[in-house]
Amino acid sequence: MSLVTILLNIFLPPLAVFLKHGIGSTFLLSVILTLIGWLPGVIHAFVVND
């Protein structure tokens, strides 16, 4: 995992997921989790962008 990916996972989780997987269910889940709370979005981004 590159430094850019790690920073995107922390500061813009949906963007990091979008860059790796495109628009789909994973991206939508990331947006929803980030809107619910920042931390769930970050955790999801790290798990998905493994």
TrEMBL record:
Name this protein carries in UniProt: YqaE/Pmp3 family membrane protein
InterPro entries from the UniProt entry: PMP3 (IPR000612)
Family stated for the protein in its record: Belongs to the UPF0057 (PMP3) family.
Record's keyword terms, sorted: Membrane, Transmembrane, Transmembrane helix
GO cellular component: membrane
Keyword Transcription appears in the UniProt entry: no
Primary location recorded for the protein, binned into one broad class: membrane
